[in-house]
Amino acid sequence: MPNTSTSRFEPVRRTAPDRGRSLLGPALELIHTGRAPTRSALTAALDVTRATAGAIAAELAALGLVTVDAHPIGSGRGRPSHRLAPAPDGPVVLAAQVHADGLSVALGGLGGVLSGRGGTLGEAVYHPLPASTEPEQVLTAIAAAGAELVRADRRRCLGAALALPNPVREPEGTALAALTFGWPGGTPVAELFAAAVNAQDLGPRTRHPLPTAVGNDATRLASLPTAVGNDANLVALAEHRHGAGRDARHLLLVTSGHRGVGGALVVDGRLHTGSAGLALEVGHLTVDPLGRPCPCGNRGCLNTETDPEALFAAAGRTPNPSLPLLDQARELARSADRDPVARAAVDRVVDRLGLGLAGLANILNPDRIVLSGLHQDLLEAAPERLPEVLTRHSLWGRCDQVPVVAAQLCHAGLLGAAELAWEPYLANPQEVLAK
């Protein structure tokens, strides 16, 4: 599967005659992440001449990936410059995510833009889990939902990626400790997802025929590139490139989705996944040794003390089983300013969350903490209490407070999956010609 690391842009010097071609990837990522909205900004970021930057932008436009405004704009200072932007009608990738209680899919374009049915921007398509949650059934269901979107869209699809709510071993793409559905450890999710996607009818714009060795006229369809990643890692990737984590050097993301808690770390612009993709399993940090039992076998993990089920348990309430658990938990957190029971539940869960964040801050020394999912609602419900608990229990927080901010992106897991699927093309934009 593609490397999930990000790039930190600093001026890049090239003296070889082909330096413009070698900078296509860095240039595309600068435009993709909004760091080079004009040709002059691209010139400065790449540390090249205006002519070289113009040639790079023109080649990316010829590949159908970006647009270059024909008329330069002025900012009041300096020479007017041409605007650069991802091509709105350019290719897309299929982004998919498995949740504890459902599936979601969207098409992801450059610029961190998602679209759902009919190309509606900023939307995703949700489906219930299939009756059987065995790996093959879940992955076939999400591949079929994604294929429906791909067929209905006029843009080319270059690849697909899946966000999973459990650890994923790299580079094999196997799921470990798949506690959400009880999948066996070592389930070959990347292999199964690739097979499920490429078994679908993806339409004529997605795959082209390739000659085979069987007969002169026989053909086979080229496979659509696919990848799989842990959902928290992919949320961090998306927030670092397009959201609340932009420009952070040491970004810690902690999130609680439909069930459980995940975390990820971006260090100097690169996603830190450890030796095998399994780093930052923050959900199994103990914050209450006498707390609720965790599927991992311990008690009082962050996983079970600060997720949606924990909030309902603290409030002594039972969620509606016919409605998404995360949505109900977020509404419960938002009601804390008018509901004393909800306030007490939020404070209890916030205290556990602050204790966990303090332990992580002591170990990792981040310069920014981004909270996503239910955790960002807890931060909004207790904007003073949560930082105070973190500061009180953090060695470094007492002398150098760590900013704790809410995530900014909707459907961040899907956006991160789209980033993962775009990786080969951000590394080498000319790869679009082979698809």
TrEMBL record:
It holds the Pfam family ROK. PANTHER family: BIFUNCTIONAL UDP-N-ACETYLGLUCOSAMINE 2-EPIMERASE_N-ACETYLMANNOSAMINE KINASE, ROK (REPRESSOR, ORF, KINASE) FAMILY. Belongs to the ROK (NagC/XylR) family. Residues 10-20 have a biased composition (Basic and acidic residues). This is ROK family protein. Residues 1-20 are annotated as: Disordered.
